[in-house]
Design brief:
Elements (H helix, E strand, L loop, with lengths): L2 H8 L8 E4 L6 H12 L5 E5 L1 E3 L5 E3 L4 H5 L3 H8 L3 E2 L4 E7 L5 E7 L8 E2 L12 E4 L5 E4 L3 H19 L11 H7 L7 H6 L4 E8 L9 H11 L19 E5 L3 E8 L2 E8 L4 E6 L12 H4 L7 E3 L1 H20 L7 E8 L5 E3 L18 E8 L1 H6 L1 H14 L7 H12 L4
Parallel strand pairs: 1-2, 16-18
Antiparallel strand pairs: 2-7, 3-4, 5-8, 6-7, 9-10, 11-15, 11-17, 12-13, 13-14, 14-15, 17-19
Helix pairs in contact: 10-12, 10-13, 12-13
Length: about 425
C-alpha cells in the first residue's frame, strides 16, 4: 500500500463496514481479534488502521504511531497469536504506511474467507467459542456476533458466490430486450457537467442493462444499499466509488428514478448512476490524462502527456477485472436474474500507446499504438455466467482491447495479473 491508497481509506474520516480505526496501541489479541474475525466474514474483507484516535464527539483524529508500537506489528507473531482463535485461519497482511503528513500507521488488511465463513474457536477475553463475528451495520458500525437475518443473509450470499465461481456453471437464457427504452432513460446523462469534462479526454463508459422491462428496484434507498454493499474494494479504492461525504469534489445524489455518485478529486474523475430499472451507467476518466491537480502521482505525470498513453495493468487489466467482479455481485442480488446486456467502451484512444507503470515491466523496442478513436465491446450474458465467470468475461474484453493496439499477450500472463488483483496480493 502507498500513501495515496492510505489517504483514500482515511479520506472520509469515518468508520465503515470495511474500515476500522484504532488509536496508537501495540498489537494484542484482546484488542484486535474480534475486528479481524469480523472483517474476514464480509465481502472483500477490510482494513484496520492503527494510529487514528476517536474523540469525545465520535470524530476521528490522525495521530500516527511511534516506533515502540510499530515493532509490535510483526506478521509472523500476529499470525501465531491469532491462529488459536480462528477456524479456518484468517488471511491478512500488515504494513507500516505513511500519510501525506509523513505520519506512520499500521495497516492490517484482512481478506475475505476463501470458501466458508470464519468461526471463533476459543473462549477468551471478550471472544466466545462457536460464534461467527461480522461487521454489523445495525446502529453504529461495529464488530459483533451475527445476530440478525440481514447480516446472516449477506454472509450466506457471499459464500454462495464463492461456491458458484468455483463450480463454473454455464447457462444462458435471454428475456425480451428493452434496450431502446433503457437507452432513452440515460439520454440526459451526457449533459452532466462532470461527464462533459470527463469526455474531453480519454474515458471509459460502462453500461449494464437488464433484458426485461420490469422495475427491478423498489426505491432509491434500495439502490443505495445495493451499491454500498456490493462495491469492489481490493486496492484501497472502491469500484464504483461510493462517496461517504458531500463536498465540492464529491457527492451522492438521490433523484426521482436514479441514484448518482460522483467524484472529481486529484486525477480521479468518475460519475455513475443506478436506476430503479436496474440499469447502471458509469463514466470514468483515464487517470493518465489529468495531471493538473494530482499531487500523489505528480512524478508519474511528468513522464507522460495527456491523451498519449494507456497503462496496461492499472488502466486496463485491473479496471476491467474489477468491473466484471462488480457485475457478478449485481447478479447475486437479483438485479439481472433474466440476463444483462453489457457495453464497455474506451474513448479518445487514437494514437495512444501502451505502457507499464511498473518499471520492472516494459516493452523492449516495439511501441504498441492504436489508430482507433474508440474501442467498444458489447454482449448479452446470463445470470449464471456473470456470477460464475467474471474473471473470464473480463479476460475476453481485455484481449479485445489489447488487440486494437497490435499487442497479443498470452492468456496466462493476463490471468496472472488478474489473480494478483483478486487475491489482494498487490
Amino acid at each position: 500500500m502507498n500513501t495515496k491508497e492510505l489517504e483514500a481509506l482515511l479520506e472520509g474520516g469515518i468508520e465503515t463496514p470495511r474500515i476500522e480505526f484504532k488509536s496508537c496501541c501495540e498489537f494484542h489479541v484482546r484488542t484486535f481479534a474480534k475486528g479481524i474475525l469480523a472483517m474476514s466474514n464480509i465481502r472483500d474483507g477490510g482494513y484496520i488502521i492503527v494510529g487514528v484516535r476517536q474523540l469525545e464527539d465520535d470524530s476521528f483524529k490522525r495521530e500516527g504511531i511511534n516506533d515502540d508500537v510499530k515493532k509490535s506489528f510483526k506478521f509472523d507473531d500476529m499470525k501465531d497469536k491469532l491462529a488459536p482463535f480462528t477456524d479456518p485461519h484468517v488471511e491478512f497482511t500488515v504494513e507500516i504506511v505513511k500519510d501525506r503528513e509523513n505520519k506512520e500507521y499500521a495497516v492490517i488488511r484482512i481478506f475475505q474467507f476463501n470458501e466458508i465463513p470464519v468461526i471463533c474457536c476459543k473462549t477468551q477475553y471478550d471472544l466466545k467459542e462457536g460464534v461467527i463475528y461480522y461487521r454489523s451495520q445495525k446502529g453504529k458500525v461495529s464488530s459483533a456476533p451475527v445476530s440478525n437475518s440481514f447480516d446472516m443473509r449477506d454472509m450466506i450470499t457471499n459464500a454462495t458466490i464463492k461456491m458458484m465461481q468455483r463450480v463454473k456453471e454455464y447457462g444462458f437464457t435471454v428475456g425480451e430486450s428493452v434496450k431502446g427504452k433503457l437507452d432513452d432513460e440515460i439520454e440526459d446523462v451526457s449533459k452532466e457537467r462532470l461527464i462533459e469534462k470527463i469526455k474531453r479526454r480519454g474515458y471509459w463508459r460502462i453500461n449494464f442493462q437488464p433484458l426485461i422491462d420490469v422495475q427491478k428496484l423498489s426505491s432509491i434507498r434500495e439502490c443505495e444499499e445495493i451499491i454500498e454493499k456490493n462495491t469492489v474494494n481490493l486496492r484501497g479504492w472502491d469500484y464504483p466509488h461510493f462517496p461517504r461525504r458531500k463536498g465540492d469534489d464529491t457527492g451522492l445524489e438521490r433523484e426521482e428514478n436514479f441514484l448518482q455518485g460522483w467524484i472529481d478529486w486529484e486525477d480521479r474523475l468518475e460519475s455513475w448512476r443506478l436506476y430503479l430499472s436496474g440499469q447502471f451507467i458509469h463514466h470514468i476518466a483515464l487517470w493518465e490524462d489529468w495531471p493538473e491537480n494530482s499531487k500523489f502521482n505528480a512524478e508519474i505525470h511528468k513522464k507522460i502527456k495527456p491523451l498519449t498513453s494507456l497503462e496496461v495493468i492499472e488502466s486496463v487489466i485491473y479496471q476491467i477485472t474489477i468491473m466484471f467482479e462488480f457485475l457478478s455481485r449485481f447478479g447475486s442480488v437479483g438485479v439481472y436474474d433474466e440476463g444483462v446486456f453489457v457495453s464497455v467502451g474506451l474513448f479518445n484512444t487514437k494514437n495512444r500507446k501502451l505502457w507499464f507503470l511498473n518499471p520492472e515491466r516494459y516493452f523492449y523496442t516495439y511501441k504498441y499504438t492504436t489508430e482507433a478513436k474508440k474501442i467498444e465491446f458489447s454482449e448479452k450474458f446470463s445470470k449464471d455466467v456473470i456470477i460464475s465467470e467474471p474473471k473470464n468475461l473480463a479476460l475476453k474484453v481485455i484481449k479485445n482491447i489489447f488487440d486494437k493496439f497490435g499487442w497479443n499477450p498470452s492468456v496466462e500472463q493476463i490471468k496472472n495479473d488478474q489473480d494478483k488483483l483478486l487475491s489482494g496480493r498487490i
